[in-house]
Specification:
Elements: E1 2-7, E2 12-19, E3 23-31, H1 33-37, H2 44-66, E4 75-81, H3 85-102, E5 106-110, H4 111-122, E6 130-135, E7 140-147, E8 150-156, H5 162-172, H6 179-187, H7 211-222, H8 234-262, E9 267-271, H9 278-290, E10 294-296, H10 300-303, H11 308-321, H12 345-351
Parallel strand pairs: 1-4, 4-5, 6-9, 9-10
Antiparallel strand pairs: 1-2, 2-3, 6-7, 7-8
Helix pairs in contact: 2-3, 4-11, 5-6, 5-7, 5-8, 6-8, 7-8, 8-9
The structure holds 5'-O-[(R)-(carboxyoxy)(hydroxy)phosphoryl]adenosine and zinc ion (ZN).
Length: 352
């Protein structure tokens, strides 16, 4: 089965063709980063207009690269939620229209479930149950997956997402946007033990909280009155970046491994844009291996927003539960098991 996937939930317009839920035939990603950079963050109105202009060319390119036409496609999948509603509507409406016009089944896919499925695509032999850390600019949560596409959140950030914390810390340090890759680069020349920042732990056993850490970086760079000019030397800046990164990575690894042990996972996985972070990949891999668990981290192009993961999960969902209704709507928030519940040591025992 060949599925055309469409992803427009945030600021990447992506179209992909995937065979049998796993084999990526093409995966085109048109990034809007250059349009939003001048504002230091994503502007929803600009994002949805840019998706409208970029989507059909992305679909055409994906088909061309795969050497296929729409007639060869068995189903069309698109991201339905969560995300920016205006942006989601562009991809969802186009997918429904194409499916209706071509007489093909349409499948609505959850963006977070698709990110989790990206790790399955990267290594389909990796065992279940799996615990995955999904860390991006908009979401940071830990999920327990019992099989591909059957996922439940077991921990989450109670305030900022990890990627958002990277982006905000980078802004304070006067680095470029998006900040995650900039901090990753600058940290290589800094001392990760130079600064003692507060750990980003949240209320539940597997929860995170990054807003205090972000404020601590602001105070370190600009003073507690928030008005002072930054007076850090280039080396001090690199030390702040490395110490900030180390604190985020330590918390992410600690909470994910705690969930993996507490819930009896057979493998540990990473997904989302922050999974591109070199320190996070290395630390999570050694923690998983030390615990005797399998480790999966997709290639960066499958970690960040892409339509291949949407097409892949679309194939599984179509087989498992049939086509979606063409009347389904886009929505911004996370609902159901993907929103999850709060785990404590007591509750963790109860699910085993
Ligand atoms: O998954 P993604 O591409 O988009 C969504 O938010 O859905 O994630 C983007 C986020 C941004 O906050 C970016 O700063 C962060 O991922 N990021 C990184 C790295 N590369 C991207 N964070 C830390 N280190 C990186 N190397
Ligand atoms: Zn995403």
């Amino acid at each position: 089965m060949i599925v055309l996937g469409i992803e427009t939930s945030c600021d990447e317009t992506s179209a992909a063709l995937v065979e049998g839920g796993l084999k990526v035939l093409s995966n085109t990603v048109a990034s809007q980063t250059a349009l939003h950079r001048v504002y230091g963050g994503i502007v929803p109105e600009i994002a949805c207009r840019a998706h409208s202009a970029a989507l059909l060319p992305a679909v055409e390119t994906a088909l061309k690269q795969a050497g296929l036409t729409l007639k060869d496609v068995d189903a069309i999948a698109a991201t339905q939620a969560p995300g920016l509603v205006g942006s989601l509507l562009v991809g969802l409406t186009a997918a429904k229209a194409l499916a209706w016009a071509e007489g093909k089944p349409f499948v609505a896919v959850n963006h977070l479930a698709a990110h989790l499925y990206a790790a399955h695509m990267a290594d389909p032999a990796s065992p279940y149950p799996a615990v995955t850390l999904l860390a991006s600019g908009g979401h940071t949560a830990v999920y327990l997956s019992r099989r591909p596409g059957e996922d439940e959140a077991v921990g989450r950030t109670v305030d900022d997402a990890a990627g958002e914390a990277f982006d905000k810390a980078a802004k304070v340090l006067g680095l470029g946007y998006p900040g995650g890759p900039e901090i990753d680069k600058l940290s290589a020349t800094g001392n990760p033990k130079a600064e003692a920042f507060p750990r980003g732990e949240g209320p539940g056993d597997y929860d995170f909280s990054f807003s205090g850490l972000k404020t601590a970086v602001l105070y370190r760079c600009k003073g507690t009155r928030g008005r002072d000019e930054m007076t850090l030397t280039p080396q001090e800046k690199a030390d702040v970046a490395a110490s900030f990164q180390e604190t985020v990575v330590e918390t992410l690894v600690d909470r994910t491994m705690r969930a993996a042990r507490g819930l009896g996972a057979a493998s540990v996985r990473l997904s989302g844009g922050v999974a591109c972070n070199r320190r996070l990949r290395a630390r999570m891999q050694s923690a998983a291996e030390a615990a005797g668990l399998g480790f999966v981290c997709p290639a960066p192009v499958l970690c960040t927003d892409n339509a291949a993961m949407v097409a892949g999960l679309g194939a599984i969902l179509l087989e498992r539960q049939g086509a979606s209704d063409l009347g389904v709507d886009a929505f911004a928030r996370v609902e159901g098991p993907l929103a999850g519940r709060r785990y404590t040591a007591k509750a963790a025992k109860a699910v085993k």
